[in-house]
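Let us begin with a simple case.
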Amino acid sequence: MLSIKTTSLFFELTCIYLRAMKTTDKKIELKGFTLAELQDYCISIGEPKFRASQLFNWIYNHICFDFNEMQNLSKELRGKLDDNCNLRTLNLVTTQNSHSTGTKKFLFETHDKHKIESVLIPEKERSTLCISTQVGCPLDCKFCATGLMGYKRNLTAGEVVDQYLLTAKENGKEKITNIVYMGMGEPLLNFTTTLKSAEIFTHELTKGLSRTRITVSTSGIPHKIKELADSGLRVKLAFSLHSAFEDFRSKIMPINKKYSLKENVEALKYYSQKTKTRITFEYTMLKDLNDTDDDVKAITKLCAKFPSKINVIPFNSIKHMNPGGISAELEPTPYDEILRFVDKLRSNNITVMVRETQGDDIAAACGQLAVKMK
């Protein structure tokens, strides 16, 4: 459960939002409301509290986009909701399918005509949806196409949740089992939205998704990592490492100049201890830059600090964004060298997973999500 302080903040923001909607005569965006917020809204329009659970079920389980289809609500209430509220935050523009892996990329448009992407990755025993939290990204990581987009704005909780709902609807009977916040943007720079959407995904009334199947990925915002630990959600946390050396990490990830690896390691240790979970380090392999024996030693030393594992990721081309500077010079570590690197880490008793490239033929692989903005 979320902390009382966090829940109170949600309620306060909701009240501000509702007042703003009344002032501007715009429809209220119910998609993205938590159960508590739906309860507050129902009470505010003179409806009993239990109506919120019915709305929650229709919106997040039945994936309903039309109030008139909510048959256990009275006709009067359905009319009231239809006049004053909105249930669609995104429009699905196109889908692309990878013929080699079955990966699907979804292009969505927001109400203000921005474009974002999500990716559905099918695997043998699960199906993982990679969702976005921002339009673009402000962090400018040199190996990531999204950073080359620039940044427009944060997504709302409704826009984050709608990526899952619209994808699930499009996917039909093929169930989505896992969600990873690893698409466009830095989730912890859109903290309230990330928290709210994760609360909805993991709520006991939401069918089929548990906290153990939700992963939030971050490039490293230490105070927000600690705040996430204190929220009570206990979702899995993935940290974009990519180098265990401060100087090189700052070159490829400018955020490291503001929030050092040392600060982040302390926050990750706090998260691991507070939530009793293992941290995942994400590590993109860059030829002759972070694939040396010295890197193995530095990673080994880091992994000894708290329970962790490494996800080794082959570097995927970002040439579709016409990069310049260091981004244009990056090359992937040859696969046999990746395996050598992995073997050395494993010989030091480190759990290592090698993430297979999926969807690179449709620019949907890790680090490739981007939409060229006007």
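The second case is a distinct protein. As before, the sequence precedes its structure tokens.
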Amino acid sequence: MARGRFIVVEGGEGTGKTTQAERLRAFLRAAGLEVVVAREPGGTPVGERIRELVLHRGDVAVPPETELLLILAARSAFVRCVVEPALAGGSWVVSDRFEMSTFAYQGYGSEIGVERIAPLNAYATAGLVPDLCIVLDLPIEEGMARQRRQGKGGDRFESASADFHRRVRQGYVEMSANQGNAVLVSACGSPDEVEMRILGEVVARFPETSGSGGAGSMMRRRA
């Protein structure tokens, strides 16, 4: 059985990652592929508990270094219990965030430094690297406005300062320019417009997803 592919949807707050990950799942399934969609931090029982602590427990002080180690602990379980078994079984995995988030948020945003995080992350992931990272890019002012319109903005990262989010965006842009498995995609416009940009990148990287059936028809309908 052929090994599956690992695609990650990344980006700052308000870029629409979760929506686009779900749309990508529908597209891949229309191409006849088995697809698993998950999120980080989370995806496993221990990961979801860590997610709750890191994102939503404002009453618990979590220093940036502790935050980093908790996220990497959740990632270790995510890789070993969700991603690797799915890929080995031939399924494609679409993840809402993965390692680039850690480099962007903790490395750039919290200024821990990518070079300090990299060896710890490599241990947590056992060297697993995504086949493709779709990095959604949006001016932070627009991202924050979207969050307000949707009634969001309450978790630990969403509530961070504008300067923090500017550093996060800078990190994503710089990493996308330097990583062969990453592509920067504008998140401006409607969800349909963003989806078409994403699907264009996915089909270009993985021609087997274009097909002559459901997936190809879907792209033609939305073009």
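Residues 152 and 158 are 8 Å apart (CA to CA). The first helix runs from residue 17 to 30.
Keep these points in mind for the review questions at the end of the chapter.
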